[in-house]
Amino acid sequence: QVQLVESGGGLVQAGGSLRLTCRASRVIHSINVRGWYRQAPGKQRELIAEMHISGVTNYADAVKGRVTISRDKNQNTWYLDILSLKSEDTAVYYCASTTAWGKTWGQGTQVTVSQ
């Protein structure tokens, strides 16, 4: 079974930027959607960015204009670039892949934004 591993999280000052990386343990064929989600303390997990197989991207209103989802040509690595970090961006960030057989989640990476 394919595994997804996120990296790139950490402690960042407000106003800073970071890149999160999601790597699959093997090439995943027929990924319909690559996504990034986050879950802040006491809140539900929310979708913040997704990229469809067509290349179309969607972003949550809360992060629109500050985040970009992208992928490598090898298709088993994708990224989330976040600019102008705010304290409300503090959360555990998860990547996910959706195929015809279901959704696979990574274990999450913590992002903490300090004032």
Brief description of this entry?
With about 120 residues, the chain is an all-beta fold. The chain is built from no helices and eleven strands. It is globular, with a radius of gyration of 13 Å.
How widely separated are the two ends? Answer: 40 Å
Helical proportion?
under 10%
Give the helices and strands as they follow along the chain: EEEEEEEEEEE
Unreliable sequence segments: none
Tell me the total number of β-strands. Answer: 11
- Quaternary form: single chain
Q: Any idea what the radius of gyration is?
A: 13 Å
What is the SS-derived class?
mainly beta
The averaged pLDDT comes out at 94
Most strands sheet: 7 strands, mixed
Tally of alpha and pi helices: 0
> What portion of residues belong to β-strands?
over 45%
Kindly describe this structure:
The chain has 115 residues and is mostly beta strands. The chain is built from no helices and eleven strands. The strands form two sheets. Strands 2, 4, 5, 6, 9, 10 and 11 form a seven-stranded mixed beta sheet that branches. Strands 1-3-8-7 form a four-stranded antiparallel beta sheet, with no helix packed on it. A hairpin with a 6-residue loop joins strand 4 (33-39) and strand 5 (46-52). It is globular. The protein starts with a strand and ends with a strand. 25% of the residues are buried. The mean pLDDT is 94.
